[in-house]
Automatic annotation (TrEMBL):
Pfam families: TerL_ATPase, TerL_nuclease
Ranges where the Terminase large subunit-like ATPase domain occurs: 55-230
Species whose genome carries this gene: Martelella lutilitoris
Ranges where the Terminase large subunit-like endonuclease domain occurs: 247-521
InterPro entries, per database record: P-loop_NTPase, TerL_ATPase, TerL_nuclease, Terminase_largesu-like
Protein name per UniProt: Terminase large subunit
GO molecular function per UniProt: endonuclease activity
Length: 539
């Protein structure tokens, strides 16, 4: 282990450096290593252009292919590798693709695939493989290369390697023996991911290898996959078939500390990536916050919030994910914030209850029922799953049915001690008039600086003070994660979308509800209840 290296987290792969024994009862790990060492690479500086298999990479290869069941079947079926840019993860993946195409792991007619989010990304590992085989002239003669199809075929065995992408239409019918999934954090849709995963289960002894840098946000297929790997690494899940190789940096680590760089980048000890290049990037990042976040994500593998300029650190927000039992709050003063959407956005109702100097909040979301899958692909979040789980109410048609929203507000007013129902009047005139005519406490709360800045400030105070309990509702969390903050000359803050497709409706409604609760005259809190339970508080 190098002098710069140290373990940075409870998921760090220390086994790569500790010299521990890696079982290899059938010699499959050794033969994989020998195959890789017999390869050539056009950019190699080793004698004869030999493939540069570094000691830490060799340990990874042995750990994948060595351990086997008594029947000789490989134990590892899924490899979750997180490596920063510049650590030659694509070269290693390309070489392993060849191991399964023309090496000892190949089978006649076997299918190996390199899968990525788009055609250009899918070609990277494929071109790397082509470069390797072309560096060995007598090997290239035994292959058929069909560049237009991104396919390499071994003439004698009909085993082939092909690059495919998520933007190339349907890929159903795939039965890969080996699948290299590249930069999963960049995948906007999960269709191809599902095809790859289901295809692998059709073939005995198949292997999925996912290699990626860290991503942003939690509502995506990459986060789900790597979070499962983290649980395996920590021993929370017993799954010997999944091998986590997670070179991650904790978010609180000092990103300017070169010891942290060496821990996250195992190749630095071997000269890649270039240390001087990283130092130059770090110097620039000190003065430019956008560059700093990119440096942390891409070169230190810090999994970041979705927004590049988040309202609050989502790790702090997540500390409010205590269970919320709203049935216990029916008698206490309640304020509702309502953000009515345009056709494509979410519509949100958020209820807020005061508790000491903080708040309990609970949301209700609505979206059009038609084409939930298309909306999921567009926004990159699992609308169908959220709907099925009850986190979103899907209203009939292709636009939000405001009648369903109005009925929900009336139901909440009947159930809870609602003091006010706050609306931005821009799209709410009809609902407001209906409610006011029937005696409901509907009020205007315009979305300008004067009204929203105090509400946003109060919400921020509650979150940072660990005084906002939200129950961990996944849609509300996603909305908070999307916020980009605009600040005026006086230091007032306002919410904006990071991108046009981002949804922040629940966060806006939450700020409205909290703001009206803060301005409310009632001083009754849940702590006044004779039935107060510890789970409703923070301590």
């Amino acid at each position: 282990m190098g002098s710069h290296r140290f373990s940075t987290s409870d998921t760090y792969p220390n086994w790569i450096y500790d010299g521990s024994d890696i079982p290899d009862p059938f010699g499959y790990g050794e033969r994989a290593v020998q195959f890789l060492r017999a390869l050539r690479h056009p950019k190699s500086r080793l004698p004869g252009g030999a493939f540069d298999l570094t000691p830490w990479q060799e340990r990874i290869v042995r750990r994948i292919y060595g351990p086997c069941h008594e029947n000789g079947r490989r134990i590892v079926r899924n490899v979750a590798m997180l490596l920063p840019r510049g650590n030659r993860k694509t070269s290693l993946g390309a070489a392993l693709g060849l191991l399964h195409t023309m090496g000892p792991e190949a089978v006649p007619g076997g299918e190996a695939i390199f899968a990525a989010s788009d055609r250009k990304q899918a070609r990277i590992a494929y071109d790397e493989s082509i470069g390797i085989v072309r560096a060995i002239p007598h090997v290239e003669k035994r292959l058929r290369l069909i560049d237009s199809k991104n396919r390499l075929t071994v003439s004698k065995t009909a085993a082939f390697l092909e690059a495919i992408s998520a933007d190339a239409g349907t890929q159903h019918g795939r039965t890969p023996l080996f699948a290299l999934v590249d930069e999963l954090h960049a995948w906007k849709k999960r269709d191809l991911w599902d095809v790859v995963r289901t295809g692998l289960t059709k073939v005995p002894g198949s292997l999925l290898m996912v290699i990626s840098t860290a991503g942003r946000g939690q509502e995506n297929v990459a986060y789900d996959f790597y979070d499962y790997a983290r649980k395996v690494a920590r021993g929370e899940v017993d799954d010997p078939g999944t091998l986590p190789i997670l070179f991650e940096t904790p978010r609180e680590a000092d990103w300017t500390d070169e010891n942290v760089w060496y821990a996250a980048n195992p190749g630095l000890e071997d000269g890649f990536p270039d240390i001087e290049g990283l130092r130059q990037m770090a110097r620039e990042a000190k003065e430019r916050p956008g560059e700093r976040e990119a440096f942390r994500q891409l070169h230190l593998n810090v999994w970041l919030d979705h927004s590049s300029d988040p309202f609050v650190d989502m790790l702090v927000y997540d500390q409010g994910a205590f269970p919320v039992e709203i049935d216990d709050l029916e008698e206490y003063p309640c304020w509702l914030g309502v953000d009515l959407s345009s056709n494509n956005d979410l519509t949100a109702i958020v209820a807020a209850w005061q508790q000491s100097d903080g708040y309990i909040v609970h949301p209700w979301f609505f979206c059009p029922e038609d084409n939930l899958r298309g909306r999921a692909d567009r926004d990159g979040v699992p609308y169908p799953e959220w709907s099925e789980a009850g986190h979103i109410t899907a209203t009939p048609g292709n636009v939000v049915d405001y009648r369903v929203v109005e009925d929900q507000i009336r139901e909440l007013c009947a159930r809870f001690n609602v003091q006010e129902v706050a609306f931005d009047p821009h799209m709410a005139r009809n609902i407001m008039n209906n409610l006011q005519e029937d005696g409901f406490p509907a009020v205007e709360m315009r979305q300008g600086w004067v009204t929203m800045a105090p509400a946003v400030k109060e919400l921020e105070r509650a979150i940072l003070g660990r005084r906002l309990i939200h129950g961990g509702h996944p849609v509300l969390r996603w909305n908070f994660e999307n916020i980009v903050v605009h600040v005026d000359a006086a230091g007032n803050k306002a919410f904006h979308k990071g991108k046009s497709k981002d949804r922040i409706d629940g966060a806006v409604a939450c700020a409205m509800a909290v703001g009206r609760a803060a301005a409310g005259e009632s001083t009754m809190s849940i702590y006044d209840s004779d039935t107060f339970e510890e789970e409703m508080g923070w301590f």
